[in-house]
């Protein structure tokens, strides 16, 4: 731990720091628990954990206002927790139970919350990018001043539809923040093995889109950049790109042995750049919290996560009749 | 109480694995995220991390052990102040969800429970009241009028596509709409089907009602991921929270001499997908009434038009608010000897064939499905039970066609009424050739329908 750089004490309130700490810790503990439940066979199929990237969503949610929208890929648990969705409902969706956000019909990769303006949870790499621009299109059409955060990874950044979307988003001045979560690996392919572009955000320049790169392991830097991006979009200037440099500690999915990088590389990031430890240092050094205070928060978070896990285990599987519901939004015959 | 560390499942299909190596020993303190062991699954060697913190009290499975079942206790983790000796390992709790207990059978209709006959009496109510004033109109005008009326009616409806605005539509379906509704609601896009289809689906998630025009449905293949994965499935995946009320429309099927990539009928492709509604009108009245219904429908609707039909004229009722419901077939011509079932331009071939057959004394009933999803099985079955013979007619390829599906349905539900096997008249099983003579051979003709009818009527 000694190798971690000592942060300058920024101009941030104790309450905000504690809030970020709590939110990031919730995501991490939640994901660890999800990994455990996966190991026990309670969660099936694909499960993509967000561990390591927590500062990205927590920082950007701190820059969002009520009514702003968000949409992301299949690595979506962190986004849902950060925008205030109930950990119980998220975990129960992971276990495929009735108490899940999609009543068990979506799973890890497909969850939504109209109430929290969370539009999924999309499993096709890059597909959420035009969808997010479309949400922004609807907001601009209605003139409601809302902004959409459209998250995608460094892997998705090579999909053609991303650039089709950049073109139209700028052409039509859509209020969308494109957030590239660059965790450096698209499944097993590192960024340098997939592109010679020096940076991903600069590709926006070809379409006239402004943007910047941000240190994604520093929640305060993410929040600041997020505020710039949101202000830009809300002012009607069009889209903005944030390339948030982050790192995932776990494999691409639960079944990824992650042989494409060394254990040392992961360990180094954890020890030197961990986003949660960073805020912990700020809290301690600023005299905002004692070790004891933080232990109490840890305990509180653990309780929330355990409660979510218990709920997700106890919630019944969906009624068999659910197989045939929600195919159509009206009273039409549900199938041919 | 000590926590049991269980053998984890590390892939969607893993049931057992090899505990290849312990990376901790008894007495070690561990924190969450620390790697405890290497485990070989059926596919790879995986690192297994600690979730909880504590002290390793006991390693219960020696390294090198193979065939360790998922959820077997492999180690004991002690909390602060606990003693390993005090804790006898318990049998691992079964991880299977409680709800895995015998479940009641789903109360749903499955194939084997399909009713043998029409589920309901066929809906034979007229599409408009008797005595309604009619006017002659092309399919093109009817589509334009339907969109204009619905855009008047609902501000959230907008039209988006290539050349729909300033150019007035590649096939002039959107003629005048830009002037009438302005650039906010009639939106010219760059040539970027995948992208603008995705944007339109997102706009529908966001509360608008987009009409997406594909210059032709051939180009919608670039966008088919959004049509199916994003538009058709989201309502289901979200447990009913949000969906995509919208229309994807444009010309579909063969035009004339435009070659393989521009001449394909997608009816069967889209009709296969739960979550989509699929419309394929023949007449101008149906084009208008069904388009209005499509725009109001709270689901994604595929609206398959036909370039050759755009310029054909039909009588259209002059009514304040004229709509045609989905799932109601139209009987164009009543008959007693054979049922011809078709949709879209296939109806033109079928009616032509029926005329020819009448001259030879064969009375054909011609049914226009109008919508393929939902599909009006009742009207088809009622007719087949009357005529005892059926020929299906469509432009698309034969394999996995709508005709195949109808044949199967008729066989399952009206087998005893059939006096001959059902014949599917389709386009030929080839990419569309360019040469005039070859194209003519590839496309379905009314003569082929006549021949099929003669075969099923043993004439």
Describe the structure.
The complex is a heterodimer of chains A (336) and B (459). Chain A is an alpha/beta fold. Chain A has one domain: Rossmann fold. Helix content of chain A is 42%, strand content 11%. Chain A contains eleven helices and eight strands. Chain A has helices at 14-39, 54-61, 77-82, 87-94, 128-142, 160-171, 191-194, 219-234, 263-273, 275-285, 291-314; strands at 69-72, 118-121, 148-153, 176-182, 185-186, 189-190, 210-215, 240-245. In chain A, the strands form two sheets. A six-stranded parallel β-sheet of chain A has the order 2-1-3-4-8-7, sandwiched between helices. In chain A, strands 5-6 form a two-stranded antiparallel ribbon. In chain A, strand 7 (210-215), helix 8 (219-234) and strand 8 form a beta-alpha-beta unit. The longest helix of chain A has 26 residues, at 14-39. The model of chain A has no long low-confidence stretch (mean pLDDT 94). Chain B is of the alpha/beta class. Chain B folds into three domains: 3-83, RNA polymerase II/Efflux pump adaptor protein, barrel-sandwich hybrid domain (OB fold (Dihydrolipoamide Acetyltransferase, E2P), Beta Barrel), CATH 2.40.50; 134-317, Thiamin diphosphate (ThDP)-binding fold, Pyr/PP domains (Rossmann fold), CATH 3.40.50; 330-456, 3-Layer(aba) Sandwich (Rossmann fold). In chain B, 27% of the residues lie in helices and 22% in strands. Chain B has 13 helices and 22 strands. Chain B has helices at residues 139-153, 177-181, 193-205, 224-232, 234-237, 267-271, 284-296, 307-310, 346-359, 377-387, 402-414, 436-442, 446-456; strands spanning 3-6, 16-22, 29-30, 35-40, 45-49, 54-59, 65-69, 73-78, 134-138, 157-161, 186-188, 209-213, 246-251, 277-279, 300-305, 313-317, 330-333, 338-342, 364-368, 371-373, 390-393, 423-425. A seven-stranded mixed β-sheet of chain B has the order 11-10-12-13-15-14-20, sandwiched between helices. In chain B, helix 9 links the parallel strand 18 (338-342) and strand 19 (364-368). In chain B, helix 1 (139-153) runs parallel beside helix 7. Chain B starts with a strand and ends with a helix. In chain B, 50% of the residues are buried. Mean pLDDT of chain B is 92; it is low at 88-109. Chains A and B meet through helix 1, strand 2, helix 5 and helix 6 of A and strand 5, helix 3, helix 4 and helix 5 of B.
């Amino acid at each position: 731990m000694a190798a971690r750089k000592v942060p300058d004490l920024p101009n941030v309130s104790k309450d905000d720091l504690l809030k970020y700490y709590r939110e990031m810790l919730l995501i991490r503990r939640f994901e660890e628990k999800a990994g455990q439940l996966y190991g026990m066979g309670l969660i099936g199929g694909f499960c993509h954990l967000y561990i390591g990237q927590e500062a990205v969503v927590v920082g950007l949610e701190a820059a969002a206002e009520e009514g702003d929208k968000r949409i992301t890929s299949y690595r979506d648990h962190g986004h849902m927790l950060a925008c205030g969705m109930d950990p119980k409902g998220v975990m129960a969706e992971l276990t495929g139970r009735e108490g899940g956000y999609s009543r068990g019909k979506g799973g890890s990769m497909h969850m939504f919350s109209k109430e929290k303006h969370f539009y999924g949870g999309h499993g096709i790499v890059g597909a959420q990018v035009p969808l997010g621009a479309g949400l922004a299109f609807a907001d601009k059409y209605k003139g409601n001043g809302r902004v959409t955060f459209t998250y995608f990874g460094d892997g998705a950044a090579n999909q053609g539809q991303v650039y089709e979307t950049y073109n139209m988003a700028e052409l039509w001045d859509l209020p969308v923040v494109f957030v590239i979560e660059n965790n450096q690996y698209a499944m097993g392919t590192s960024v340098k093995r997939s592109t010679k572009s020096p940076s991903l955000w600069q590709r926006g320049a070809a379409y006239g889109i402004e943007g910047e790169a941000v240190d994604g392991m520093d929640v305060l830097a993410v929040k600041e950049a997020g505020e710039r991006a949101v202000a830009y979009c809300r002012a009607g200037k069009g889209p903005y790109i944030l390339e948030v440099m982050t790192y995932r500690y776990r494999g691409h999915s639960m079944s990824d042995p992650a042989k494409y990088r060394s254990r040392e590389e992961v360990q180094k990031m954890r020890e030197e750049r961990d986003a949660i430890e960073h805020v912990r240092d700020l809290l301690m050094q600023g005299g905002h919290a004692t070790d004891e205070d933080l232990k109490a928060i840890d305990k509180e978070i653990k309780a929330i996560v355990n409660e979510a896990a218990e709920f997700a285990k106890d919630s019944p599987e969906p009624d068999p009749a659910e197989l045939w519901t929600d195919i159509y939004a009206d009273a039409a015959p549900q199938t041919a | 109480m000590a926590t049991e560390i269980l053998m984890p499942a590390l892939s969607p299909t893993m049931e057992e694995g090899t505990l290849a190596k312990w990376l901790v020993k008894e007495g070690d303190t561990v924190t969450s995220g620390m790697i405890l062991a290497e485990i070989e699954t059926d596919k790879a060697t995986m690192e297994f991390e600690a979730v909880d913190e504590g002290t390793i009290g006991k390693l219960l499975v020696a390294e090198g052990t193979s065939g360790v079942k998922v959820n077997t206790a492999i180690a004991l983790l002690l909390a602060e102040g606990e003693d390993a000796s005090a804790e006898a390992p318990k049998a691992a709790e079964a991880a299977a969800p409680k709800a895995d207990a015998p479940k009641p059978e789903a109360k749903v209709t499955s194939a084997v429970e399909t009713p043998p006959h029409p589920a309901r009496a066929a809906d034979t109510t007229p599409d408009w009241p008797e005595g309604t004033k009619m006017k002659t109109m092309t399919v093109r005008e009817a589509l334009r009028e339907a969109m204009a009326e619905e855009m008047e009616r609902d501000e959230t409806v907008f039209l988006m596509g290539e050349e729909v605005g300033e150019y007035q539509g590649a096939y002039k379906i959107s003629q005048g709409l830009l002037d009438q509704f302005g650039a906010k609601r009639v939106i010219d896009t760059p040539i970027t089907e995948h992208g603008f289809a995705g944007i339109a689906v997102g706009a529908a998630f966001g509360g608008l009602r987009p009409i997406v025009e594909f210059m032709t449905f051939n180009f919608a293949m670039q966008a088919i991921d959004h049509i199916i994965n994003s538009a058709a499935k989201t309502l289901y995946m979200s447990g009913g929270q949000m969906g995509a009320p919208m229309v994807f429309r444009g010309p579909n099927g063969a035009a004339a001499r435009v070659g393989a990539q521009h001449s394909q009928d997608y009816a069967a492709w889209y009709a296969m997908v739960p979550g989509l509604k699929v419309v394929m009108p023949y007449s101008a009245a149906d084009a208008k009434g069904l388009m209005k219904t499509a725009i109001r429908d709270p689901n994604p609707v595929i609206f398959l038009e036909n370039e050759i039909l755009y310029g054909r004229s039909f009588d259209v009722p002059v009514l304040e608010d004229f709509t045609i419901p989905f799932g109601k077939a139209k009987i164009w011509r009543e008959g007693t000897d054979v049922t011809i079932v078709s949709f879209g331009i296939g109806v033109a071939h079928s009616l032509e064939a029926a005329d020819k057959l009448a001259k030879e004394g064969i009375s054909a009933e011609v049914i226009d499905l109008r919508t393929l999803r939902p599909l009006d099985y009742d009207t088809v079955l009622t007719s087949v039970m009357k005529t005892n013979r059926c020929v299906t007619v469509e432009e698309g390829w034969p394999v996995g066609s709508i005709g195949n599906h109808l044949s199967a349905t008729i066989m399952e539900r009206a087998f005893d009424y059939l006096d001959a096997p059902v014949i599917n008249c389709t386009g030929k099983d080839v990419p569309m050739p360019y040469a005039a003579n070859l194209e003519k051979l590839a496309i379905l003709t009314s003569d082929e329908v006549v021949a099929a009818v003669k075969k099923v009527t043993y004439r």
